[in-house]
Write a structure and sequence with these properties.
Strand content: under 5%
Largest sheet: none
Mean pLDDT: 94
Distance between the termini: 57 Å
Number of helices: 15
Radius of gyration: 19 Å
Low-confidence stretches: none
């Protein structure tokens, strides 16, 4: 019910222009309606008057970076990461949003160099500060940072903690979050088949770890990357069509083009050498 939400959010901002919650609502509306250019313009303007020391500044900056990323503005997204996310006053949001952004850049082939590895290490250090048992939404993002900077010890501690929570009856720690974390670790290790072996059985339950579509569907995107790496183009196409029914983002269309091109190439008969 996007238009109702937009109307109420805009009315709220008219009464109190500094309402970060209303701006957050609008960011999600722009995202769900695939108006990334409009969302970026709105947030760029609104954030200019919002104190960067405010706790929610980091998350709104993440939304701005996401709009840039979907438009292919990787350099701009990284600029926002460095300026507004990595050193944010809310370390938990900095870790979660920073890891989610850098992971998407990785999925898009924007791996970076030593600076990116240092950024992942900084996020892993934040994760060690803010992680706590039972907050599985935070733990799955901590796993992105630990795996990406090669911190096997921290990753093992995290997975052991999820197993222990599961053994105590936690509804998602062992059954959903743990395989998501294991899938992340396998992906970073280059074991794309292993990543899918963990992720596919819980694909329909990703949402149970919490967060919005814009957040938890990161793990769907990881599955798409695995399918493409393994040349499982039909599986990639199936998942992409399902995502496109939800919202037709430019990134999803780019991935669908890759899957279709790969599928076409795989079906073409090979030519003899010298032909």
């Amino acid at each position: 019910r996007f238009e109702e939400s937009r109307r109420l959010s805009e009315r709220s901002l008219q009464q109190y222009p500094g309402n970060a919650n209303a701006s957050h609502n609008l960011a999600h509306i722009y995202f769900e309606t695939v108006d990334h250019e409009g969302g970026a313009a709105f947030l760029e303007d609104w954030l200019a008057g919002y104190d960067p020391r405010a706790s929610f500044h980091c998350h709104l900056a993440w939304h701005l970076a996401m709009f840039e990323l979907h438009q292919g503005g990787y350099a701009r997204a990284l600029e926002i990461f460095q300026r507004d996310i990595l050193g944010a006053v809310n370390p938990r949001l900095a870790m979660i949003d920073g890891s989610a952004l850098l992971w998407r850049l990785r999925l898009d082939g924007e791996h970076g160099g030593p600076d990116r590895r240092r950024a992942w290490r900084s996020l892993a250090d934040l994760a060690e500060r803010v992680s706590r048992p039972g907050f599985v939404f935070g733990e799955i993002h901590a796993a992105l940072a630990y795996a990406s900077c090669g911190d096997a010890a921290a990753l093992a501690t995290l997975t052991d903690g999820l197993r222990a929570l599961g053994a105590k009856g936690h509804p998602v720690a062992g059954t959903v979050a743990l395989p998501m974390v294991q899938g992340v670790a396998a992906f970073v290790a280059g074991d794309h088949a292993g990543a899918l072996a963990h992720l596919e059985p819980v694909e329909g339950e990703f949402h149970r770890v919490g967060g919005s579509h814009a957040q938890w569907e990161l793990f769907e995107e990881t599955m798409v990357a695995c399918y493409l790496e393994l040349e499982r183009y039909e599986d990639a196409t199936r998942l992409m069509h399902r995502r496109l029914q939800r919202r037709a983002t430019p990134r999803d269309r780019r991935w669908l083009d890759r899957a279709n091109a790969g599928h076409t190439a795989a079906r073409e008969p090979s030519r003899p050498a010298g032909a």
